[in-house]
Amino acid sequence: MVGRQKIPADAIAEHTRLAEEIRSHNRAYYQEDTPVVSDAEYDALFQRLIALEEQYPALKTSTSPTMTVGATPASGFAKVEHRIPMLSLANAFSDDEVTEFFDRIRRFLGLPLTAEFAVVAEPKIDGLSASLRYENGRFTQGATRGDGSEGEDITRNLTTLKSIPGEIEGAPTVLEVRGEIYMTRSDFLALNTKQAKAAGKIFANPRNAAAGSVRQLDPQITANRPLQFFAYSWGELSSPISDTHWGALAQLRKWKFNVNPLARRCSSASEALQFYRDIQQRRADLPYDIDGVVYKVDRLDWQERLGFVSRAPRWALAHKFPAEQAETLLEKITIQVGRTGALTPVANLLPVSVGGVTVSRATLHNEDEISRKDVREGDRVIIQRAGDVIPQIVSVLLDKRPRGAQPFIFPDHCPVCGSHAIREEGEVVRRCTGGLICPAQVVERLRHFVSRAAFDIEGMGEKSIQAFFDEGILRSPADLFTLEKRNADAPIPLQIQEGWGEVSARKLFAAIEARRTISLERFIYALGIRQIGQATARLLAKHYGSLVALRAAVEAAQDMESDAYRELTAIDQIGPSVATDLVAFFAEPHNREILDDLGQEIHVEDFVSRQTGNSPMAGKTLVFTGTLSLMTRDEAKARAEILGAKVAGSVSKKTDYVVVGADAGSKVKKAAELGVKILTEKEWLELIKSV
Known about the structure:
Elements: H1 9-31, H2 39-55, E1 79-81, E2 91-92, H3 95-109, E3 119-125, E4 128-135, E5 138-144, E6 150-152, H4 155-158, E7 174-182, H5 185-197, H6 206-214, H7 219-223, E8 228-237, H8 245-254, E9 264-266, H9 269-282, E10 290-297, H10 300-306, E11 316-320, E12 324-337, E13 343-354, E14 357-363, H11 367-373, E15 380-385, E16 392-396, E17 421-422, E18 431-432, H12 439-449, H13 462-470, H14 477-480, H15 483-489, H16 502-513, E19 517-519, H17 520-526, H18 534-544, H19 547-556, H20 563-570, H21 576-587, H22 589-599, E20 603-605, E21 621-625, H23 633-642, E22 646-647, E23 657-660, H24 666-674, E24 677-680, H25 681-688
């Protein structure tokens, strides 16, 4: 059983560190348009995370960034819910990985291993993803990707782009066109020249310039920026526009959307790889930045069957270009402390231009990474990037090492609170033991609590939290909701931070008041429990339904022999590692005190009361066993999850259906013993065929 797999402590620790770091990078890239790592470094982190999860499948819970998309929308714009999620793409970095992509599709669909099929290949534009909604042929709404489920309403800004038609003829009643907003290199250089003359913001690269130009509260600013739009896909449709991806692109062209003229229909993997090599050679001569090639299965009925995993469609792949490199000086190594106490070393570099982008910082991950590469202050180092800003350190130029350069001594005390920083046996991360007495950890936890994916309290930014903490006004999450009352008794000093005054106070109190009711999944995420990201929080909310039920179940799960523990670890994508962190959080008296205090101030909505849909599988728990004949196991599982079912790996009293294929084993016997309804594959398909 995967959930019982023994996982080394160092693998668990590395997975936790990587997940936390990638989420931080997602926020910087998607919310703030100021990425702090290069594409190359981000991709390297992501691939390592994938490798760990492939080696230890129990680590692949819905907390993992491999199961999520982007980051929550930024404030300042109304929110737009995507009726069909705007997914990210899985990445490939070699020909072998592309070949494996084609093989996976064959296996999923049950095709012969030698069968060839067509894909549409096109350059991967380095811009900002956007969705355009048309109703009865008129442009009615534009939105950013956001976290894939919810984006920002940028309708007024997009109406200023000449490459986006305001009206189209012959379109379905509802047409949602998706594509990339970008800026050419020449327009980018001209914009920065103009900005410099006006003492305005200088953008790091065309992608940042495009994203920053779209996210303007004043549409006139957007109108004055040289933005363009390439259409490459679609979302919601009231009626089909083609039966192939290639045909759909042709239809978008007829409706006057710009579609990349370099896109090509390739009939095989070898033809797709040749297209990649051709585009790579032409990359420098293109007028816009690209960072790879995207492949999409051409047949739309196959796209529908293939479906998607949490963060990416199975029918598409991004084949990334190799990283660019440069040499620079590592001036100093500093240590940052995160909300879980993790000490993360950061390399501060002599600014250097890599592919037209100036970079000055890079993470060094942990003390093992520093030791493995023998990185020292004063070293000349090779850094690399593939798209955006800060790179990773590839190697040290030992022949250029200055005399007297000393090995970096990783601190054994927290640089913020002075508490011991220990590294538990088998772990790669050293953590501050200060816990709630460590200002860095407390502040980071409070920042997480009010973040956009959690309570989303506008006006309570990093500076405000730090200022309130320093004044002793804010120490725990519940303090937020007593802030207005305490201010009436003892007004908050007006000099607490720059720009703070009565108007600021009123706005902040109103923003806090508006968050006294919160959804269960947001509340769980806001607690900042290790390994509990947005996807896992939603999974837990969906499974337990209410905060009362969740608390009772997890507190009971402290007994690892209990039914509660077995139920927790049987939830698909939640293994022993996540369960351990979850149980530990609810076992800590201080955390229970925080929950009780919050219970006096806020209302957490039950998840069950908000479930909708008429699918016969919605909310049901299924177990598949045996060999299926009408579709592959992967396809059956994907279909069930799309219909709202929970797919488990073992049979329990809470299982609703066991779907049986050929040569089924002990799970059928267990189902019969428990009185669980058993369905044949045909009976299950009959049950869901009307959906």
